[in-house]
Records
---
Amino acid sequence: MTEFSAAAAPAAGAATPEDLLAFKRAFRRHASGVAVITALDPDGNPVGFTATSLASLSAVPPLATFNMARSSSTWRAIAETDRVAIHMLGVRNRPVAEKMAGDNAQRFIGDHWRAGPGGLPILDDVTSWMVGRIVERLHVHNNAVIVVHIEAGELGDDDAPLLYHKRQYRTPGDVV
Amino acid sequence: MTEFSAAAAPAAGAATPEDLLAFKRAFRRHASGVAVITALDPDGNPVGFTATSLASLSAVPPLATFNMARSSSTWRAIAETDRVAIHMLGVRNRPVAEKMAGDNAQRFIGDHWRAGPGGLPILDDVTSWMVGRIVERLHVHNNAVIVVHIEAGELGDDDAPLLYHKRQYRTPGDVV
């Protein structure tokens, strides 16, 4: 076992480069599903990003959470709007996962989306999408946990869920 | 596309059986990594559960989140303690994922764990574990989002990360 410690950080909220590396190494052992969050900014322009933090919080009522940095280009929109769209991505959607994680000026250039309920940007051909209302924004340092009450959505054609692990997109493998 | 709506729910916070099914069907299109959260209850007994909601919130400072129901057998401990251990599971750890999701009276019967920092229960042979301090407990209806500031941990032997999708444990497959 390789031990690491963040307790020796020089100040509350700070971390040494070694702690940062250790935390990242630990989380690199974790895999996640891939989602895309979209919204409209205060000027009505579409914004969005690829998220690996989407999780269910409760089924009754239907609540989901995702995490983001408040330094993100999308933060201003998420801070000011009360509505978002959440998309579940299948393996066939890898190109859009990369696009929505790339240059933010390019993310909505193309015909891969359309305006859905309330004008929210809805990505084409995803395995599922849901729209909902932001009910909590928990600020922790320069980050936020967002809680969404899901109000509607659609199921698309099924596909193997897109995975992210060690900076690579993957398909699920065998049942173990 | 199969449309569903939770907006027609009879009351705020409520959902119809159809909404519940639709939300669950949408989240069944999402895959997740598998973690185990452990803590000590107020009597000093080990408690824990298998979580599919673990996510990184920030690397600097090192913050992680997980979600849970406040009706869970582990909630009393998480509500009252300020320290938890988070374990990343590899494919070789599938048996312990099942054990920590099963009968809560049986979860710590066996030699699959030991007391670690501060007496926290640490599972053997996981790919990584971290201990930290709970810095936020956000209550939303009968659920909670828990934010943990990671303070220390260890990396174990590497392994393919254990996945959960459509009620089955899986290994990751090909890069796409």
Note: Chain A touches chain B through 82 residues (CB under 8 Å).
---
Amino acid sequence: MPKPPPPPLTIGVDIGGTHVRLLLVADDGQVVNRAHLPAIAGDPTEVVRPVSVQVNRWRGAYPHIFRLGVACAGWVDADGRRVHQSPNLGWHDVRLADLLETLCRLPVRVENDVNAALLGEHAAGAALGQRNCVAVFLGTGVGGGVITDGHLMRGAKGAAAEVGHHVLDPNGPLCTCGRHGCWEAYSGGAGMVNRAREAIAAGEKSSLASLPAVTTAEIMAAATAGDALAKRIWGEACRRSIQGMVNLAVLFDPEVMVVGGGVVAANPTLLACIKDGMDQEPPFAGLTDVHLVPAALGDDAAALGVALTTGV
Amino acid sequence: MPKPPPPPLTIGVDIGGTHVRLLLVADDGQVVNRAHLPAIAGDPTEVVRPVSVQVNRWRGAYPHIFRLGVACAGWVDADGRRVHQSPNLGWHDVRLADLLETLCRLPVRVENDVNAALLGEHAAGAALGQRNCVAVFLGTGVGGGVITDGHLMRGAKGAAAEVGHHVLDPNGPLCTCGRHGCWEAYSGGAGMVNRAREAIAAGEKSSLASLPAVTTAEIMAAATAGDALAKRIWGEACRRSIQGMVNLAVLFDPEVMVVGGGVVAANPTLLACIKDGMDQEPPFAGLTDVHLVPAALGDDAAALGVALTTGV
């Protein structure tokens, strides 16, 4: 009897401003190999070349690699070919799929990194088997993705589910997007740091004032230690996350809401705080029986997501 | 040569708290016949019987009727069989599809009336041919629906797109849902009337105080005539509608946003006000090139929507 052919493999690449991660993945989600490359911001061809070298090295060792998925920070067109804009990478209108197809001779699909992370959690993580789910990642910013009736919601221009930029209070703090009171301005790490700096500059007393530079981790630590300013900023970040999550539940009626990201990883009590807050809301259709779960795949989520769904 | 068979027809029924409307519709969207029945709130079998009489009368006259779609105010399960809850009709857990299938011997699908109206606008109205669209209906309440990548978003429990109950400011006025600052509390007709009553009861001077009962139409008329209270309430309703629409554009990234409902029909300047407000927002992906259009089908939208999409 002939030997059965080796299982088909796909490669998932996650290109961010601070990391380039490659996973070689079997169809059942098993990670067969992994590689990390130093991040290079700047010219897309310079960023892409070391990726193609690693891909082609793996193709020599594993002959059954048949596609490549790429997760990329920024606004990716809905057809999965072009990075319209990526502030993190300093890219504008980059035909990333064409570039990599030329260098690797494999079919390529590009996906926004947050959407990719949700696809990963949906294919092999915290949202496995759910038909309607919302993912929210609380980090420097507040990102999100939505799967509705089993399909990733990309929108007309690939820009859907910008959950961090829905406005929770038009009189709120200024956001990087130019509007006031976006969820991200309250609950993103960068927003929290800005508000601490502003308060200190305005003369407010705080243990944070003596630090050379305020970080999100220090705000969380100071809040735990009882610092009034840090408690206020952290408390508001939590309360606004409850409002944001309730809004998404009401708008999307998901079975599961996945919460992840650096701020949650650094302070797991945030998830309990959001859950308590949602439980105390008046009953409402979309809020009934929503399961709030922590993200399960950590930093692998996006690369795994594009590897497992690129052919879909 | 034999005569070609007559074209297949479907019936769309719109059951609301104040109206029951039936349309007999050809596959191309042409309305072949129509009927209006008096609204009966109360026992579902009493409401459904005259509908079935009209359906069976049409079946006698038109032999090629092959399905029935029903639009119903309230929370309809995602599988289109059961009305989970309809405050307008006083219904709870009504197996409406079963009831009508027994009486009419036709396959039946039930849809929430606002989703049905969006399906109508998408199949034959203002959102014709668009793959991603959001509809918002500003009336007594604020209702909405979403089509993403060509599919109606129903959510896990059929409760998705409750756009009027996403919170625009947690310190805002009390909403009927028990929370504060929902879009509906600001911009729904009932919310506007409540706020006028409260201000008058608190002693605020207004031309509205002399009226036996305040209505939305009177608030709009008084605002136009320069009444300070009416102008404040109407102005806030407009500003909050801009915030709500911007949030939906950022979350859903649609090609088209359809705006309809009684409040818009009674005051077409509202649409221009929302459009101006959205145009003045800082540029943002989901907001770019969004077309804001008035609903085109009026009161026929929901019945037409279920008639044209029931087999889909």
Note: Residues 228-252 of chain A form the longest helix (25 residues).
